[in-house]
Write a structure and sequence with these properties.
By secondary structure, the protein is of the alpha/beta class. It has 2 domains: 164 residues, FAD/NAD(P)-binding domain, CATH 3.50.50.60; 202 residues, FAD/NAD(P)-binding domain (3-Layer(bba) Sandwich). A 6-stranded mixed β-sheet has the order 5-2-1-9-21-20, covered by helices on one side. It has a 4-stranded parallel β-sheet with strand order 13-12-11-17. Strand 6 and strand 7 form a beta hairpin. The relative contact order is 0.15.
């Protein structure tokens, strides 16, 4: 194992997502010590989280240990810590355990979480999907709903068990809604005796006038038709105004449902606020064209945490994995060039803490030109269900089987780890050929929401619960 060179600058990368991993990799040959810090010990392939939530894939297939990624990169060091604040002037991080660390360069790529637009109390009833834990919670809720339906004798309550609401018509919402419907139609229809899982009602609610707003209108229309064809109820131009344990209110209409999933918006990690820079309405840092924080050229923000427009196109950089990866590589190349050129940023003096740090170089002409970040859009894709997808690549728009195969190929290539690619490919193949989902495991023993057949007070004692089971068995 290579020992760290104490004279080499320390580049700290916060976040082991797409942007952070790309930045560390791009610094592999730079004369720096790279320290990657993440509160999780794994890199997560977020585009496939919905497949964990709908039992297509097990958790381990879309997560990869961060240390495994960099075990052959001698200048990379990984620490499993949670950063709670950043002091740019002092170049110091503070961890949740009150310990700290210093840096010469900082790349902040801590990602985002679900945004409830000021209604954070809804999160307990409508979980978002940003982590493995989130996907597991949603999977538990979906599978528990079908289990509760099997034990239900009240017709109204049965309908509530079999109603699934997805809020948000972006790629995640579209993919999740289609997958839940196919779970009930293709995989569970032969497993339950007392109800027909094909009758599960899946409602996708979007406040805008079309699905997949980041894609073209033709792709939006194709996704709408594909969802409607498999039985998903799509509601456009409708906003959710209330969420609770038993359902939602949409445009004044009450819809009762035991399973609600939120995919309507995101907000950047709160770490951005500790930088002291200006933020947009979603908490993203307003960065310079080179992805640096204004007034602090040795601190960069990338991925979902950065708010910027491309200099040439004038378009905002989207919060997608390819953009984060490109930003990570762009920033890493800036750092590598400056370190090789001998650029060093001095600590600000106490009376000028908010000014641009000085640059310690004998000849300012030696400072490499940083350039401006330009996002190269390779295209967008979204899958709707079995052999159904929409894709836009290099100006071409296509949907159906060809788009679905392209979606499979791209996601397999982007997965980290050869083993994961093989396992995911095998899982997809088995699922396609057998119409089955192999990861239908309920973990953590989530509570049942069955309405007891012996009265509203029957859940208050063990004897009454036993009587409920006896009545249920007699009716089977």
């Amino acid at each position: 194992m290579r020992k760290p060179n104490i004279d080499s600058p320390i580049v700290v990368v916060i976040g082991g997502g797409f942007g952070g991993v790309s930045a560390v990799r791009a610094l592999a040959k730079a004369p720096v010590n790279v320290v990657l810090i993440d509160k999780e010990n794994h890199h997560l392939f977020q585009p496939l989280l919905y497949q964990v939530a709908t039992s297509v894939l097990p958790n381990s297939n879309i997560a990869f240990p961060i240390r495994r990624i960099f075990r052959d990169q001698s200048n990379a060091y990984v620490f499993n810590e949670e950063v709670v604040s950043i002091d740019c002037a002092a170049r110091r991080l503070t961890f949740a355990n009150q310990r700290g660390a210093h840096f010469d360069y900082l790349i902040l790529a801590a990602g985002a979480s679900s945004s409830y637009f000021g209604n954070d109390q809804w999160a307990q009833f409508a979980p978002g999907m940003k982590s493995l834990d989130d996907a597991t919670v949603i999977r538990n809720k979906i599978l528990r709903a079908f289990e509760d339906a099997e034990a239900e004798t009240d017709a109204v309550a049965l309908q509530e068990h079999l109603t699934f609401i997805v809020v948000g018509g972006g790629a995640t919402g579209v993919e999740l809604a289609g997958a839940i419907k196919e779970l009930g139609v293709d995989s569970l229809s032969k497993d339950y005796r007392r109800f027909n899982s094909k009758n599960a009602r899946v409602i996708l609610i979007e406040a805008g006038d079309r699905l997949l707003p980041s894609m073209s209108e033709s792709s939006s229309h194709a996704s709408l038709k594909a969802l409607e064809k498999i039985g998903v109820e799509v509601r456009l131009n409708q906003s959710v105004t209330h969420v609770d344990a038993t359902g939602v209110v949409v445009q004044g209409e009450r819809i009762n449902a035991n399973t609600i999933v939120w995919s309507a918006g995101v907000k950047a990690s709160s770490l951005g606020a500790s930088l002291g820079a200006k933020l947009d309405r979603n908490g993203r840092v307003l960065v310079e064209p080179d992805c640096s924080v204004p007034g602090t050229p040795n601190v960069f923000v990338i991925g979902d945490m950065a708010s910027m427009k491309c200099a040439k196109s004038g378009h905002a950089v989207p919060g997608v994995a390819p953009a984060a990866m490109q930003m990570g590589q762009f920033v890493a190349h800036i750092i590598a060039r400056e370190v090789r050129a001998g650029v060093r940023y001095a600590m600000p003096t106490s009376n000028a803490a908010n000014t641009t740090p000085n640059v310690n170089v004998t000849n300012e002409a030696q400072i490499p030109e940083r350039g401006k970040f330009e996002y190269f859009d390779k295209g967008s894709m979204a899958t709707i269900g079995r052999a159904k997808a929409v894709a836009e690549v290099a100006g071409l728009k296509f949907h159906g089987l060809i788009a679905w195969l392209a979606w499979l190929f791209v996601h397999l290539i982007l997965l980290v780890g050869f083993n994961n690619r093989i396992l995911v490919f095998m899982s997809w193949g088995i699922s396609y050929l057998t119409f089955s989902k192999g990861s239908r495991i309920i973990s953590g023993n989530p509570p049942s929401r069955v309405v007891s057949p012996v009265g509203s007070d029957s859940g208050t004692s063990l004897d009454q619960r036993r009587k409920a089971v006896e009545v249920l068995l007699k009716r089977m």
